[in-house]
Design goal:
There is one protein chain. The protein has 141 residues and is an all-alpha fold. The protein has helices at 2-33, 37-72, 80-107, 115-121, 124-138. It contains 5 helices and no strands.
């Protein structure tokens, strides 16, 4: 009985995590383009609140619920698709942590990158999302 609820809330947490992971680098694009102090300060607040208040709690929930699902379905750990998915989730966690580092760099007025770089950086999680969903749904190997 608990399995469908865990799966549903895992998916909600994943969707929320990805929403934040798509939006934060977009804020970085605009922040890197900002040329006025009030604008830059506003972006600092938005970035901090998004990272700490939505992105990180969603990541913790998604990972925690994912671990609970693995405990209920340990046979998944014997399947190649799950190995690949877990590797991609680790890459996503690395991206998440990198975003946190960028939040701190912007906070401290130490950004060295252009808005163009952040536009490319913003596309990375799209590739991860597609690959993770395909692995979880299609289970190709």
């Amino acid at each position: 009985m608990a399995y469908p609820w865990l799966k549903a809330f895992h998916l909600v947490a994943v969707v929320t995590w990805f929403a934040a992971i798509f939006y934060l680098p977009r804020l970085f694009v605009y922040h890197a383009m900002a040329d006025d102090t009030p604008g830059r300060e506003r972006f600092k607040v938005m970035e901090r609140k998004l990272y700490r208040g939505i992105m990180t709690p969603s990541a913790v929930a998604a990972i925690g619920l994912g671990i609970a699902l693995l405990v209920l379905n340990p046979a998944w750990l014997q399947q190649g698709w799950m190995h690949a998915k877990l590797v991609l989730v680790l890459v996503l966690v690395g991206y998440h942590l990198w975003c946190g580092r960028l939040v701190r760099q912007f906070r401290d007025d130490r950004n060295q990158r252009s808005h163009r770089w952040y536009r490319v950086f913003n596309e990375v999680p799209v590739l991860l999302l597609v690959a993770i969903v395909v692995l979880a749904v299609v289970k190709p190997f």
